[in-house]
Amino acid sequence: MQNQYDTPSKILERVKEVLQTIPDSEFSMRAWKQQTDCGTVACAWGHTLMKTPEFEDDWSLTDEPLEEGSTLLYLNRMPHNVFKTLAGYIGITEADTIDIFHVKSYQSKYPTPMEVISKINNLIENLQPRGALEGSEKG
Question: Looking at the whole model, is its pTM more than 0.70?
Answer without folding.
Answer: yes
